[in-house]
Amino acid sequence: MLVPFAVYLSRITAPVNAAGISLTSFTTLMLITLLFSLLFIFLSLLVIEAVLSFKNAKAIKTGTQLKFRQIPTALAAGILIPYMLSCLVSLKTMQYGHLLVLLPIVAAIVTDSGAYFTGVTIGKKKAFPTISPNKTVEGYVGGAIAGIAGMLIYGIILSYTTSLTIIFPALILYGVIGAFVTELGDLTFSLIKRRCGIKDYGNLIPGHGGALDRFDSMTFAAPTMYLLVMLLPAIIV
């Protein structure tokens, strides 16, 4: 939870010195210090757990003791996933951020919906049966088409309801790349579940694969849309 807060504070409270160079605020520095302090505590607990697991004869015999590679994996996932999702915060703090932050949301939701309904309706050929048995080639194609169409429709809505300049060729590229990374994100998190031998990430949301399963596509779509907005603006004031 500290990761998006640090991103938010760094976006809105960065002072500028006499030379025009942006400086990190005291509040942000304190928050980052707290973040790394907590990470150090978590790392210490993981190492302690790993050491204690090797003292457990039963765990050693069955091979279920905590392995060293699981420690950096846990830390990387604990930082990387929130940081990628924090790109939503970065988009929101931009000028007209309330419109820009909808770009990854449109990309993820429309692509996922298009892939699901296309797959259910006409899906026959399995795309990655060993990773995600329910995903079909037709579903992926339908999701890509839906993602591009959704981005274009969003651009049309903005062109009629705001005074902003919409670059539609760039929006098409947003749709293509957004659809690709959305489906890649969904496939990546499915691969993690298969690799770990679990069906769902949790049971917090009934009928779903866990809270993380609701954000798998957004985890990839958010940083991608942020980079596209920075490098190739499609919505111009």
What is the assembly state of the chains in this entry?
A: single chain
Radius of gyration: 21 Å
The level of helicity is over 70%
Q: State the helix count.
A: 11
Q: State the total count of DSSP E strands.
A: 4
Strand order, sheet with most strands: 1-2
Structural class: mainly alpha
Order of helices and strands: HHHHHHHEEHEHHHE
* Main sheet overview: 2 strands, antiparallel
Explain the overall architecture.
By secondary structure, the protein is mainly α. The strands form two sheets. The protein has a two-stranded antiparallel ribbon with strand order 1-2. The chain is built from eleven helices and four strands, in the order H-H-H-H-H-H-H-E-E-H-E-H-H-H-E. Strand 1 and strand 2 (132-136) form a beta hairpin.
